[in-house]
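Following up on my earlier thread - several people asked me to post the actual chain instead of describing it. Fair enough. Here it is, all 1008 residues.
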Amino acid sequence: MTWTEESLRAEGFENPKRAAKELGAQAESLGASAAERIHEAAKKTSEPDEVVAAFDRIREGLQGLPEPTLCRLLDWLPAVFHASTFVPRQLVTRPGLLRWLAGSRTMTREKPRDHYHREALAATCRIAPTDAEGLHRRLRRYKYREYLRLMVRDAALRAPMAELGREHTALAEALIGAALAWAERSLGAKYGTPDTPGFCILGMGKLGGEDLNFSSDVDLIYLYRGDGHTTGGTAGALPNVQYFTRLGETVTQALTKVTAEGFCYRVDLNLRPQGRAGAMVISLPAALSYYETFGRMWERAAFLKARVVAGDAELANELLSDLSPFIWRRSLDLSAVDGLRELKAQIDLRGKASADDVKLGPGGIREVEFFVNALQLLQGGKDATLREARTMRALRKLERAGFVSGPDVDALEEAYVFLRRVENRLQMLEERQTQALPTGERERRRLATSLGFADWDTFGAELERHRRFVLGAFNTLLGQTARDELPDEPLLALALDPDLSPQERQAALDKRGFENPERALAELERLARVPHSPFVDGGAGVKAVRLLSELAQTPDPDQALLHFSDFLARLHQPEGYLALLTSMPRASRRLFNLFGQSDYLSRIFLRHPELLDALVQAQLDEAVKSPERIRQELSARLARPPDAETKHGAMPRFKNEEVLRIGLNDIGGDLTVPEVARQLTAVADAILDECLFLAMEEQRERYGLPLNASGQREGLVVIAMGKLGGYELGYHSDLDLIFVYSGNGQAETSGGSRGAITHHEYFAKTVQRFMTLLQVQLREGHLYKIDARLRPSGNQGALVVSQDAFREHHQKRAQLWERQALVKARPAAGDATHFQALREEVLVPLVYERPLPPGAAAEIDRLRTRMERELAHESAQQLNPKLGQGGLVDVEFTVQYLQLVHGREHPRVRSTNTLAALEGLQAEGRLSPEDAEVLREGYLFLRRVENRLRLVHASSLAHMPTSGRPLAQLARRMGVLRADPGETFLARYRASAARVRDVYARVLRASR
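Reply from S.P.:
Thanks for posting it. Predicted structure:
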């Protein structure tokens, strides 16, 4: 017969020229009748070109076959080629399978289980114990031969799904059994046999329920009887646990390794005790102990399908018998109902995000299985007839027991069989583990027609009918759906689903806002290895989704997830903390917000996970403490240890706890910017006071006391400058300090264990020790970095000076910027009486009462301009909230200049605090209300930006990003939650900076 391009095109061929050529070649090789049969069969499919091409690829394998054999293949193969692109590739590489396939006596009937076992053992029994490659090759060749047969039975012969499920299961059991038999021979030669024999492989999931399909994982648990040692072989002896672990590894490798021949199965061992965090093999006593102590609802559900698939059946049955009270509860307890509700909610959530998935989606396979399993768990303790591993048989038993009506069972069974057939067909196409319906028009047409439907719409209507019924039954079973109990987080449910591929889980994380989904998935896998974690194997998924949802709602979900993972990893017994977090949503939200807001605070918390107790018990909730209260709490803590070293070591811990308290309340919105600064300042003041006391006590013991002629002790005052002086301390701020003592520096101390020294030496040693105590790195971290460059003569001057030397320097040599800096001077620690005298006799006269030198405004502006030019380093990519144009320094220099100008006549403006000074300047009429408000708002806004930048990072950060994700994250931390938070926030920043600079310029540049 001749096939023309015109006729083939009219019949739906897309490439009629090639199809005509291929059919002609087939007619020449196989005969015109065979070619015409191929043509007729192909044009009835949605992929006629592909079917004809597939026959052309195997043409040589078909040549020479007897007529009955060829006819049988021509009857079967078109439907298979239409359903699968995988089969033609297999037949090209192994054309001998064609003759075997046509001659099989079991094509039209189910092959018995023992038949599979005999064939698999026969294929591998002569492989040498050292020939792992030979084992892998024979297992895979046998698997794919049987897969070809099962694909014909499914696609062409429409074998019942129950038969196909049993045969797939029997094939898997045979391969597992053959792999185990070889592994025992191999390891027995090396190490002998265990003195406590007994090893079995439990099949779980679809393998246990005899319901495998074309690309199922096999869920396994490796169990051995007990400890001991092997008898010894060529490589010596091993403890039993090591021997059986190697046995499990060998079996797993035999099944999973991808070779030139393909692979047997993906092996999932995550249903074992403690999931991925647990040992590969487990002894019978350890398994019983685990399930009796820690067994959860999802593990009870998993064991409904557990059965031995290879090895010591007596051992497996002993475990299952002993676990019967764990699986089957005789009374209906509320915890069981709650556990089932949680499992149902987990399925509910994941189903919502998997609408096109016939397994996971609404009304899908998993929901049928859950419907059956839930009723079994609820009723099987009282009715042993319901203890059935196979889904459809269990459903019929539930009908006979009166728990489900006959019509409902019929509808559920019809839906389950339909869905399983669709799942098989999806996986047959490329031998790929998928349950997702295709989205392309051509792929949809191919699926529908391969299943016998006229088109996609007809198929879709039937699919919808079945899924709608399953969904109704599923939702009726235990009442409300997850969407009433949980955040609506279907994407996170997908991300936590261990049944999905890593790529699918990463895609879900990406859509949910994780910047680095690959890293985020790695952290979830890490969490899944934490014993008793809600993240283990997706088992307690409702709790896991709730926790992950809270992490995802923080400003930086990636950072929050990383810190949470680190937090659990550092705990020796994480289950107690996890129980707290899952039972107390308020505590978990606060902790996760901390992790997502502040790298700096998170690192404090991670060093001290015991602080979670304080978080839970609301000890960190107190937003504002008075400075006196902070001093009292520190003094009380330091009163307990007797020695100075322990007292000093306790200070960083106190500081960390207080900074954590302040930071938590800051990011929680319970503290204003000034309150944050005053709280941080109060902590610093308290620590400075205690450190100075320790330093002075040490010097007193060594050198006595610095006494004046009247026998009175001379005073040392620690003067706070800069932000510390203004009660404006921020996170990571250095402390600007000046040290001034009273009296004659050349007088001698009263003497101690090391004699007497001059007062100047005494105070110098005291200050040096004081600074060491503050700056030395301890296990808990250092206390503060000290900047003493504001002292007379800066780094070139003495660290500590007398009051007279201090006065002389500022009267004769100090520059204007030094006078400006003294606006912030206040006592932080030491002799307060001495500071009061110093203030009245030196500071007020030097700072406020002397006239300003000519050109003071220009000089201050010159210094400010130089700072902006040389230190701010602003660019299109970054801004500097402190030193940049319109930054904090603009506000501070404006206020400080006005304080210097008006401080003599208006004492109210002499405050060391910027906002208080602003208020005084406005009240005294030295600054208009409009300008004062611009500076006040700008100052508060910029300090908040600075605080947020420093909270994010575990170090001081001077620059602010101007684009991309970092800007968007900062904006969210600043409370900007619009669609484009970064641009909105940046516009606000630039507007604020422009207003501040305008006021600055009018005050400091108006006269120039």
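Residues 480-484 have pLDDT under 50 and may be disordered. That should answer part of your original question.
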